[in-house]
Write a structure and sequence with these properties.
By secondary structure, the chain is mostly helical. It contains four helices and no strands. It has one domain. It has helices at 3-14, 20-32, 34-55, 61-106. The structure holds zinc ion.
Length: 107
């Protein structure tokens, strides 16, 4: 993902609307691109800061954004395990079908 694309996806990221593939590309880009991380901080501040101001709760930008990125990291780990699980189930199903065919042939 390049800076242009990352910039376009920032509001989707903040609204939790990226799919697992987009999320992975986005977080990877943000983790090594200073400019985009700074831009994300600003957008996060505007969006989240305003909401916090309205409900009157205190707000720490840096820990808030770090929390958001950690949350994204956790979600990606979850997606990864979900993929493994799906592959595992598929592999199991294929093995089961082959076993059944072999049994039908042999018996
Ligand atoms: Zn960038």
């Amino acid at each position: 993902m390049d800076c242009k694309e990352a910039n376009k996806k920032m509001s989707d990221f903040l609204n939790n609307e990226l799919n697992s593939r987009e999320l992975k590309g986005f977080v990877e880009h943000i983790s090594h691109c200073r400019d985009c991380k700074e831009e994300l901080s600003i957008q996060f501040l505007v969006q989240e800061g305003m909401a916090r101001l309205e409900d009157g709760s205190t707000f720490d930008l840096q820990s808030g954004l770090d929390g958001l990125l950690e949350e994204a990291e956790r979600r990606m780990i979850f997606y990864r395990w979900l993929h493994y699980l799906i592959y595992g189930v598929e592999a199991f199903a294929i093995i089961a079908i082959i076993t059944i065919i072999v049994l039908i042939i042999v018996l």
